[in-house]
Design brief:
The protein has 344 residues and is an alpha/beta fold. It folds into 2 domains: 200 residues, Alpha-Beta Complex (inorganic pyrophosphatase (n-terminal core)); 130 residues, Diaminopimelate Epimerase, Chain A, domain 1 (Roll). A 7-stranded mixed β-sheet has the order 11-12-10-9-8-7-13, sandwiched between helices. A 6-stranded parallel β-sheet has the order 3-2-1-4-5-6, with helices on one face. A hairpin with a 2-residue loop joins strand 11 and strand 12. Helix 1 crosses helix 4 and helix 5 runs antiparallel to helix 6. The mean pLDDT is 95.
Length: 344
């Protein structure tokens, strides 16, 4: 058994007891939530409803933009609402999943007290003051932690939630090929017989709008290589998830081991960093790049950041690209000249 059921049984048991009778619970995913954040939120909601009977509302900020994620929400009945439709002060208990206070990637007000944090990213200073904290940096997915809660407390669940958690592990670890731990693998294999394969196929093969392919074209046209480093700028985008998606895509290029991408969504600059290094370090690297510009976070091979507000002027966008490029090359002690990925 590779799941840490003993630890999860102790934490989840005390948590369920504490929650009883406390009233409405807000469960907040990170902005522009990915499958792991949504799955962790749904699993936590199911756990709380079954074990404590509290009314729970799942919320998020930003948009659910990636095609796979939109299909996942629709086909698996993920009842998430936008945080702008709620008043967080109306809730007696506030929970964050796959994110933490002060990271800049969630829409919770700075002065609102957080009661529970469940995450697999490095712990932040603000998190230490929360009443309930379950941070497991060695786990590949936050959803795996919540799967352990369900297993440890013998909470039954159906095909939909099984498919949600399974797809979260599948996408977050790229089918157990990136940043997974034995607990992720055991959860993945345990859930597989329960998965709705038809819906899973629809999620992994979504229809996408024409603008999706425009983003591919823009990423390729605005990409520069510096030896094994690739940097691209999407400039203005209508879907913040496209930066991370293009970063994952371009990391597949032969000879490239680090990808840094950026794009402006509304008044926010979205930054994504990817690396193939087995030693990780993406979280420390993104913090070095973003030190006086905005907020950032991540883990081993994946990291991201945001700058708010960001000037939409094209010159400001190019200046930011130049700044981040210079910082990245200096940090990696690279003097490689830049070359356009595609010829002019």
């Amino acid at each position: 058994m590779t799941l840490d059921l003993e630890k999860s049984r102790e934490i989840s048991g005390k948590l369920a007891e504490w929650l009883r009778g406390r009233g409405k619970v807000l469960i907040l995913a990170h902005d522009n939530p990915d499958p792991d954040s949504l799955a962790a939120a749904m699993a936590l909601k199911h756990f709380i409803v079954v074990k404590s009977g509290n009314h729970c509302v799942l919320a998020y900020g930003g948009i659910i933009g990636r095609g796979e994620n939109r299909v996942m929400v629709s086909k698996l009945d993920i009842d998430a609402v936008h945080i702008e439709t709620l008043n967080p002060a109306d809730f007696k208990v506030v929970c964050l999943v796959d994110t933490q206070p002060g990271t800049g990637n969630n829409s919770l007000g700075e002065n609102l007290k957080v009661d529970l944090v469940i995450d697999h990213h490095p712990i932040r200073e603000n998190t230490k003051s929360c009443r309930w904290v379950d941070i497991r940096e060695d786990y590949g997915c936050s959803a795996t932690i919540l799967f352990e809660y369900l297993m440890a407390q013998n909470v039954s669940f159906g095909t939909r939630l099984a498919t949600i958690i399974y797809y979260a592990i599948k996408s977050e670890t790229q089918e157990l090929g990136r940043e997974w731990c034995p607990a992720d693998r055991e959860a993945y294999l345990t859930l597989f017989p329960m998965v709705n394969n038809r819906i899973l196929f629809e999620i992994t093969h979504p229809k996408v709008p024409r603008s999706y392919f425009f983003s591919f074209n823009k990423a390729l046209e605005n990409a520069w290589t510096y030896d094994d480093i690739l940097i691209f700028n999407l400039f203005t985008i209508n879907n913040p998830d496209m930066v991370a998606e293009m970063a994952d895509f371009l990391l597949r290029m032969e000879g490239v081991s680090i990808v840094l991408g950026m794009g402006l969504y509304l008044d926010k600059e979205v930054i994504s960093l990817r690396t193939l290094s087995k030693d990780g370090g993406a979280d420390q690297l993104i913090r070095a790049l973003m030190k006086d510009l905005g907020t950032s976070g991540g883990h081993g091979m994946m990291a991201g950041g945001q700058i708010v507000p960001m000037d939409s002027d094209l010159d400001a966008q190019r200046k930011l690209q130049a700044t981040l490029t210079e910082r990245l090359l200096n940090h990696l002690k690279s003097e490689a000249p830049g070359h356009r990925l595609l010829p002019s």
